[in-house]
Write a structure and sequence with these properties.
alpha/beta; 6-stranded parallel sheet; globular
């Protein structure tokens, strides 16, 4: 089966974090997120274009950002309504930093909207994540949200960025992944880190 994977950024690069290693960050204070009707009009056109493809049987929509949860669950419900017009099989994956992913929201995405969830986190402690989170509280909130996925038997994937604050902690990170039991995990080398290895 031929499948295509479309990475969709419904709020552009707007994010609720300010990761030091992010090349595309846009603070929420810069402007309002791109939301709502304009995006949904564009997405409806995309669905029409996808329906015209003859050599594809399935499309995966990977919702990315910035932070795609800023788009709002009601807008995702509208997206699902538009996706139901597709003549192709499809699925959805949301790639989130996990800060906003409460147990209730995770359940809505998985049970109601049938999304898969992937969380970006760089290890089991704040030090491993200190390029990602500006405060230990942000890390602890995300870690708590991640733990609730496991407690509630919601499957998820993990994505890590390997950098100078966690690359010597391979055993600790491996144990963290093993304890979390994600459906899969991806480690990204920090190609875009600066000359100071940050």
């Amino acid at each position: 089966m031929k499948m295509i994977n479309l990475v969709i950024k419904p709020v552009d690069n707007y994010c609720n974090l300010s990761c030091e290693y992010c090349l595309t960050k846009r603070s929420l204070e810069d402007n309002n997120c791109t939301r709502g009707e304009d995006f949904l009009r564009w997405f409806e056109i995309l669905v029409e274009k996808l329906n015209s493809l003859t050599n594809v049987e399935k499309v995966r929509f990977t919702w990315h950002g910035g932070e795609p949860l800023l788009f709002g669950v009601e807008n995702y419900r509208k997206v699902i309504g538009l996706q139901k017009k597709l003549k192709l099989d499809f699925d959805n994956v949301i790639q989130t930093n996990g800060l906003l992913l409460t147990p209730q929201l995770a359940n809505t995405f998985v049970s109601d909207l049938k999304f898969s969830i992937s969380i970006s986190i760089d290890g089991p402690d704040f030090e491993s994540n200190s390029y990602r989170f500006q405060s230990e509280n942000e890390f602890l909130t995300t870690k708590s949200n991640l733990d609730s996925l496991s407690i509630n038997n919601i499957s998820y994937s993990l994505i890590f960025v390997i950098h100078d604050r966690n690359f010597n902690e391979a055993d600790k990170i491996f144990n963290f992944i093993t304890d979390q039991k994600p459906t899969n995990g991806v480690a990204l080398p920090g190609y875009y880190l600066d000359e100071h290895n940050r």
